[in-house]
Amino acid sequence: MTTKEKLLADMKQAMKDREAGKLRLEVIRMVRSDIRNAEINGKNKEELTENEVLAVIMKAVKMREDSLAEFIKGKREDLIDQTNKELEILKAYLPAAMSDEELTAIIKEAIASVGATGPKEMGKVMKAVMPRVQGRADGKRINTIVKNLLQ
């Protein structure tokens, strides 16, 4: 079952659950809308691949994490609770996060394959790593490890 199919099935279930699944239904509808907009605005006007769907979900997660940081600064408990619940719902659709050891091994392979020797070649390494870890690692985390390995 693809992520899009799972989202559709979960949306139907949340509709049946009425009040119990209200927030879940809103979040799923929002993600499905984001996916559909990405398909419409895409260059090839076709359905998104599984990796592209995961990228859309990762973007939604990142937006909420950024908002959460601001809500914490502003001490907005009501928004903090809701955003945490939304994050929990969204993260359920992402594959398990990679450990630092797995990520470091993939980055070392990428460094060797592109022949990177210093920080100036960080872009080449990132370009090689990102498709392999799509949806399983945050870009900031990858960036930090690449920087450390290229110094």
UniProtKB/TrEMBL annotation:
Xref: InterPro entries: Asn/Gln_tRNA_amidoTrase-B-like (IPR003789), GatB_Yqey_C_2 (IPR023168), YqeY/Aim41 (IPR019004), YqeY/Aim41_N (IPR042184)
PANTHER family: ALTERED INHERITANCE OF MITOCHONDRIA PROTEIN 41, MITOCHONDRIAL
Recorded superkingdom: Bacteria
Any one Gene Ontology molecular-function term assigned to this protein's record: carbon-nitrogen ligase activity, with glutamine as amido-N-donor
Pfam families the UniProt entry points to: YqeY (PF09424)
Name this protein carries in UniProt: GatB/YqeY domain-containing protein
